[in-house]
Amino acid sequence: MVPFLALHLDRRMGSTLQHQLYEQLRAAILAGRIVPGSRLPATRILASDLSVSRNTIAGAFDQLLAEGYLEGRVGSGTYVARQLPEDLLRVAADPPMAQGRSNDQLKPSQRGQALAAIPVSLTSGESPLHAFRPGIPALDEFPRELWARLSARLLRHAPTAALTYGDSAGYRPLRRAIAAYLGAARGVRCSADQVIVTAGSQQALDLTARVLLDRGDTAWLEDPGYLGARGAFEAADVRCEAIPVDTEGLSVDLGLTLAPKARLAYVTPSHQYPLGITMSLPRRMQLLAWARRQSAWIVEDDYDSEYRYASRPLPALQGLDSSGRVIYTGTFSKVLFPALRLGYLVVPEPLVDAFVSARALADRHCSGIEQIVLTEFLGEGHFARHVRRMRALYAERQHALVTAVSHELGEWLEISPAEAGLDLIGWLARDSTDRAVSELAAAAGVIAPPLSAYAVRARLRPGLRLGYAALSARQIREGVRKLAGIPPATNPPVSRDSDRRAIFAKARSNRG
Length: 512
Known about the structure:
Blueprint: H1 17-30, H2 43-50, H3 54-67, E1 70-73, E2 77-80, H4 86-92, H5 96-105, H6 110-116, H7 144-157, H8 172-186, E3 195-198, H9 200-212, E4 218-223, H10 227-235, E5 239-246, E6 249-250, H11 252-258, E7 264-267, H12 281-294, E8 297-301, E9 326-331, E10 343-346, H13 352-363, H14 368-379, H15 382-408, E11 423-427, H16 434-443, E12 463-467, H17 473-484, H18 496-509
Parallel strand pairs: 4-5, 4-7, 7-8, 8-9
Antiparallel strand pairs: 1-2, 3-10, 5-6, 9-10, 11-12
């Protein structure tokens, strides 16, 4: 139903109210403000809204029905006709040449066109939850009923202040809870004043790029690395230098060679994205020394640090920083559920005002209701219990993936357990092309992003990124069986070994 009709009837005009209503509805239909197929409000409701008699409304509707603008459906109501009279369409339409000129003018700015070309993710935000989409937590195990009870309790008893505009830095009790949690669990040294609540880690990166860097500045980014970070910095007109990652993390020495005047380094030291490497202590100290010496910044993205299975999570790089050069960011999307869209920044005290101002300009503040519910979830111990449960569950699901791949795909996909994270890398034969194999997997209904898609210049062994956290053991086994069945069944039936040889033959033929 059309939710609101901007109609205004003036009794002082010479024409009748019925004719005014007819003209205004007709004009709205022709202009497309009321789309074809829309159901109009009932005559009783519209008469009440406009303070006129139902006969006035019915008369205007009858005339529009007679002329083909509306159509009635017995027992359902009155709708805008899906096909308007042809003569009226010809009158309303622009000449073809005028349409062409108009379309040429409907373009974004050069900056807008550049933004549209920046890739942010390898998977669609609206794509179904298939095996093995990475980066998604166990949505089936999230305590929805508990969250619903907390939300209902809040809405019943929250003061009016909770429903109005809030602090751009975030709900103060939530910031205190985040600071306490990070200090105890991650070794982050901060006060609540340094915590800024964001709409996820992507907004945190966007704010960081705009507050700390000027147009044309250079930033070091891990190669391979997180596409969302590269997108945030490129969107701010920052020059992104791809710095190789070795077994100890981002190579500071190569960074100094490739971009000695860089103003910022973006790193994922606790669990490198996407390789899973942990930055060594000597490399961390070298990176901190570089930032201090160059008056540069380090952005530490601790996107899934809660999930280590072999030991306690490693302390954050920020806790080693004695000169205030580290900006720390994390998110609740990987721990609770992505739709929550709550993350946080921890910034040095001298930068707080600038970040809060930029946060206010971006979208004022995050949902106050969700922030308060999350505060209760943290404060009552539910968050800590959920993380403990998920660590055990994800360790089981990782084992299920490793076992299934080793049994079904061991001849062409090499996979090993990891100490942390929500996904694993499945390594392919060195002479294959992971993009081609990923395309074959997608045709079979399996999401398995190619490792090469995360690289700029890095020459990596071909691999597929396989997420397991959101999948049951049964779904994991089904996904592996689909991988074992590619290429598509439209090809002549062949043995499994021949299938695998066909995969690599097609992959090699598609190398570019």
